[in-house]
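Threonine synthase, Roseibium marinum. Tokens?
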Amino acid sequence: MKYSSTRGEAPVLEFSDVLLQGLARDGGLYLPETWPQFDTATIASFAGKSYQDVAYAVIRPFIGDEIPENDLKTMIADAYAGFRHPAVTPLVQSGSNTFLLELFHGPTLAFKDVAMQLLGRMMDYVLTQRGLRATIVGATSGDTGGAAIEAFRGRERTDIFILFPDGRVSNVQRRQMTTACEDNVHALALAGNFDDCQAIVKGMFNHFAFRDRVALSGVNSINWARILAQIVYYFVAAVALGAPHRKVSFTVPTGNFGDIFAGYAAKKMGLPVEKLIVATNVNDILARTLETGRYEKRGVTPTISPSMDIQVSSNFERLLAEVSGRDGAAVRRMMDRLSQSGSFGIEKAPLDAMRSVFGAGRCNEHETAATIAETWKEAGYLLDPHTAIGVHVAKEHDDGSVPMVVLGTAHPAKFPDAVEKASGIRPELPENLKDMMIAEERQQVLAADQGVVERFIEDHARAVTAGV
Ligand SMILES: Cc1ncc(COP(=O)(O)O)c(C=O)c1O
Ligand SMILES: N[C@@H](CCOP(=O)(O)O)C(=O)O
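Tokens:
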């Protein structure tokens, strides 16, 4: 499989290079040049298969023969061996027509683990094959950071630097990043918001001298392998509900648009997805864009769903490339307008194409808390604030015609204060994570300044000397 950039000016690459690259060198994001196609019989054959077997079938065509079958199967098996549920991503019925897809049974209690546990293994595999080291950077609004650190801690070939907005993540999220004691882990608390952190990460990728000197790699969903691993659970859930013989809709708590883009990829591969519903908190740039056709940045408002406090939504660029017929120049123009003036308009044809697949809705703070309280009272099920946003928005979009699956993106115990305030119930962390709440913390507080972050990384990354 070949991959090209959304902006059309970076080299076309194969999977392993895309895996190590992160952002494309023209500032764009890599996309597979074609979507593998699964016919009805193939999708039907997933029924009754294990998560791991479906994962292999879905992921294989994107990798081609770059990783031998047995090696890929072993990495998939290892990645999910530590999940606390045998189904990996179990589906729970929550109403006559609605289902919750629990994606939080991995080591850090967030959906990010599903991809990150595999990504860590794949990167290590490719780096070992090539005899290289890499410097991993990532920006987090809370969950990506913990999941990435868990996946890369102690790995010999990588140093990992995670940028997070100081004071804007939950205590559990912060401790998942700051209590890892391995020397290759660096949690960097920046005085800014998530968008500032993400802009610095992208800035470092666009600073080629620095990027090449430290062998920079990325673990945000700018990395195609993150999206790839997330496509799997759309197939697993839909097949459990009758696909390919029945259509299914998904509502996805959304920030950086990575998780829902994986659903779009599944649809492009042949999964009968009726609608993909974007669920946002009050930081609703995506909902506004679908309504008005104008992508317009506003300030970020801190909420009780901090992982979705995002205004510049990375993967939306991948969708723009899709609906623009992979016209790299058109995507570049829109992205240039965004960085120059903070907004851009989407033309009618691409906007109509988006609207034919995606719906959207938003949920404010009061509605989030009320949804947590109601769901606890009525069903005895404790939602985390992000999943609650999905449940609220799904109700507005569910017309009963096809099953509606809400993606359960985090465990409530990651946000105990918000959940307790809403429901009166304080969710407990799983036993093996309790020690983390009293462990010593280690973090570096830095200015939200690319130069400052780059200097810190140059001083601490072992890959600066290039190669092992
Ligand atoms: C708990 C939770 N829900 C939802 C999201 C939004 O996912 P995405 O950024 O892929 O849209 C995130 C962050 O990414 C998250 O951590
Ligand atoms: N919500 C995310 C933000 C980063 O998103 P990513 O999917 O691009 O890594 C987080 O929790 O960090």
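The chain has 19 helices and 16 strands.
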